[in-house]
Amino acid sequence: MDERRRRFEAQALPHIDAAYNLARWLARSRPDADDIVQEAMLRAFRGFDGFRGDDMKAWLLTIVRNCWYTWASDARRRAHTQLPSSDGAGGEETLPTNEAGPEDIVISNDEGRKLNDVILQLPSELREVLIMRELEDLSYRDIAQITGSPIGTVMSRLSRARALVKSTWIERTERSVRHGSS
Amino acid sequence: MVHPNPERLQAYFDGELDATAAAEVERHSETCAQCQAELDSFSATQKSVRENLTYHRADPGLRRRVLAALPAGTRERPQLSSFFARVGEFWRGAIGGALATGLAASLALFTMLPSVTDPLTIDIANAHVRSLMSDHLIDVASSDHHTVKPWFATHADVSPPVKDLGSRGFALVGGRTDYVDGHRASVVVYRHGAHVINVFAWAAQGANSAKTVSRSGYRLVFWRNGDLDFCAVSDAAPAEVETLVALIKSPG
Q1: Is the pLDDT of residue A162 over 90?
Q2: DSSP label at B170?
Q3: ipTM surpassing 0.85, yes or no?
Q4: CB-based contacts of A182, cutoff 8 Å, min separation 6
Q5: B-chain residue closest to A108, CA distance
Q6: What is the pLDDT of residue A120?
Q7: Are B181 and B123 in contact (CB under 8 A)?
Q8: N or C: which end of chain B has fewer CB within 10 A?
Q9: Who wins on pLDDT, A82 or B240?
Q10: What is the pLDDT of residue B13?
Q11: Please, which residues have CB within 8 angstroms of residue A18's CB and are 6 or more apart in sequence?
Q12: HEC string of chain B?
């Protein structure tokens, strides 16, 4: 095996879980996340010689996100030719939602499943920021770099994402408490 | 009373403010019930999100497919997955631009931490990666510090402090021995959310070189305590790694 490949496997491959987690939360489907991660790893491998930075994880996630973006625009274009949508911004929501995989079934508690659903329904630009912050512990600066947005934008998206989770969550919890007690 | 604006309060909550700004917000929120309530609500939302959200890990099959698809030589054309094969031509143009942007951003970003060339740092980062990739994360698996500590005493050169920090969000996973830059090291392994934190300890030698560096997306915090040198390494958020380091340093 050549040296370049060995280095790639040692430096990039350990971040495959982070890559898959982001792809899965963005694409919301297992086969699509698989495709996106495979493609992203190949592109990273090809661009590996040009990578001079120090943060392999952030670099890889940038590529994952770009791959997802291409995939999503293509899916949206196809969806639109079949079913013209009146609102452009919400077009992505016509994508098929996540089918349950084995590990989803593991979350048998209702509360956990509902919260996952709430976050799957967030607009993607809010969802990605929340996932990167809360599941990957990335800094504002890293998230800004990965999403190619100013830090101020990251802050306001994170704040909107949290506010939406909070309000939807509380609303659902209160509704279920009312139903449960009746 | 002037409240910090909501995003500033959030940045404080996320540990993203510098020390001076953070102290200001802290002073304010100590006496401001409204801001304190806002912080509590951030905390509650974060707790339920972190406890309930699924962290989707790549299954071994995907890892194998990725490895199989990597070209063995430098000139072979890799196989593209179905969707990307169709848009491949478009991408060859687009990715160049995207990568250049990402690269420029990452260069700008990482001038902040000193660049790393010393063999000890490289060895520890590599040992951390090995521990995540192979099954050799732990030699003794236990969440009980009363089990891990004596194990070091009988199996390793040095017996570092092993703390029960589960209530602080750092679950003890176990311990192992490792070998870095000529030192036999004892490694205490903690988990924080989805992230593994390896804390290396070895007999101190030479000058104290306490420092924080970054390598391959991992943060390494070095410090010395008594006759032991330590290094905590993880891809968890810098603030979380610092918190763990502070907890380990604290007596008791």
Answers
A1: yes
A2: B
A3: no
A4: none
A5: B52
A6: 93
A7: yes
A8: C
A9: B240
A10: 94
A11: A57, A60, A61, A136, B235
A12: CCCCCHHHHHHHHCCCCCHHHHHHHHHHHHHCHHHHHHHHHHHHHHHHHHHHCCCCCCCHHHHHHHHHHCCCCCCCCCCCCHHHHHHHHHHHHHHHHHHHHHHHHHHHHCCCCCCCCCHHHHHHHHHHHHHHHCCCCCCEECCCHHHHHHHHHHHCCCCCCCCCEHHHCEEEEEEEEEEECCEEEEEEEEEECCEEEEEEEEECCCCCCCEEEEECCEEEEEEEECCEEEEEEECCCHHHHHHHHHHHHCCC
Which of residues 64 through 83 in chain A touch B, CB cutoff 8 A?
Answer: 66-67, 70-71, 74
| Nearest alpha-carbon partner for A129 in B14, B38, B240 | B14
Nearest CA in chain A to B134: A14
> Residue A86 pLDDT > 50, yes or no?
no
Question: Distance between CA B229 and CA B222 in Å, rounded?
Answer: 7
Cα separation, B21 vs B26, in Å, equals 9
Q: Contact B108/A95 with Cβ under 8 angstroms?
A: no
Burial class (CB in 10 A: 0-12, 13-18, 19+), A83: exposed
